[in-house]
Amino acid sequence: MTVFMCLYCKGDLKKINGYLRCLDCDFKFPIIKDIPDFLQKDTGPERKKMIKAIDRLSTIYETPLWYPIIYHIYGGFFIPSVKETVNSITDMLEIDGGIALDVACGTGLYTRNIAKHAKEVYGIDFSMGMLRKAQEYAKRESLDNIVLARAEVENLPFKNDCFDGISCCGALHLFSDVAEALGEMNRVLKRDGKLAVMTFVRRRFLGIKRIYEHLERDHHFHVFSVDDLQSDLENTGYSDFKYNIYGSMILFEAKKI
Ligand SMILES: C[S@@+](CC[C@H](N)C(=O)[O-])C[C@H]1O[C@@H](n2cnc3c(N)ncnc32)[C@H](O)[C@@H]1O
């Protein structure tokens, strides 16, 4: 539990009677069936509504009824298989027995693969439904080095400079403030630590103005350009931006300066 910190005073946390309790301000974060809950006290109604919808989706998310369909709808039909993409993200992290964080881990599709190469992987997501599925799937594969927590990317409950690598897949385009999210990930990443991301750029079918304008306006989904990503990364403390684009999907890595 040493990487966790209090969201309110940055104090150390100790596991006491079903809570992670702050040793400085005494705030208690509940641990619900092995998953600590760091959702902010002031999470607004719009976000709560979104979380509820994602909770409902969690039951089918990683089944043939959802993930492979959405992956190909956004990415295009001639992109690498899901398995190849999961492996590429793990390779980019170069985690080799280190400690990783999977941001917006969902049901843990990427987390589980990273766990096979890391000492420990932390997975955070704001949907408890997604985290419960991640917990179930990790158990099914007997992966006991995955630590899950409910938290928001904007307020990560981790100390500065504690992860050797961070992945964030299928989610950067959903964050309301991308620079804030990249900055927060940078804060918890060690110097020279790798960030590995899967998201979408304005290419192929997502390059059709009507489609990306609709996604941006009605679904608050960012459809990035490579230049946007590069400048957001440079402005939030990363260097060595390298990427590959497949259809509308981009896999990129960057290093904390
Ligand atoms: C499309 S899913 C991707 C899940 C997983 N990384 C994968 O690729 O299978 C997006 C995830 O981002 C999470 N998410 C979105 N905004 C978030 C935020 N601000 N903080 C934490 N999680 C967030 C959602 O709950 C959801 O599980």
Give the second-level CATH assignment, the architecture of the largest domain: 3-Layer(aba) Sandwich
Any ligands, ions or cofactors bound here, and which?
S-adenosylmethionine
Please indicate the count of domains.
2
What's the count of strands? 11
Q: Kindly name the structural category.
A: alpha/beta
Shape descriptor: globular
Name the CATH homologous superfamily of the largest domain.
Vaccinia Virus protein VP39
pLDDT averaged residue by residue:
93
Task: State the share of residues found in helices, binned by percent.
Answer: 25-40%
CATH class of the largest domain: Alpha Beta
In short, what is this structure?
The chain is an alpha/beta fold and 257 residues long. It has helices at 45-61, 67-75, 82-93, 109-115, 128-140, 178-188, 209-219, 226-235; strands at residues 13-16, 19-22, 28-32, 35-36, 99-103, 120-125, 146-150, 163-169, 189-200, 238-246, 249-256. The longest helix is centred in the first third of the chain and has 17 residues, at 45-61.
Layout of secondary structure:
Layout: E1 13-16, E2 19-22, E3 28-32, E4 35-36, H1 45-61, H2 67-75, H3 82-93, E5 99-103, H4 109-115, E6 120-125, H5 128-140, E7 146-150, E8 163-169, H6 178-188, E9 189-200, H7 209-219, H8 226-235, E10 238-246, E11 249-256
Parallel strand pairs: 5-6, 5-8, 6-7, 8-9
Antiparallel strand pairs: 1-2, 2-3, 3-4, 9-11, 10-11
Helix pairs in contact: 1-5, 3-4
Bound molecules: S-adenosylmethionine (SAM).
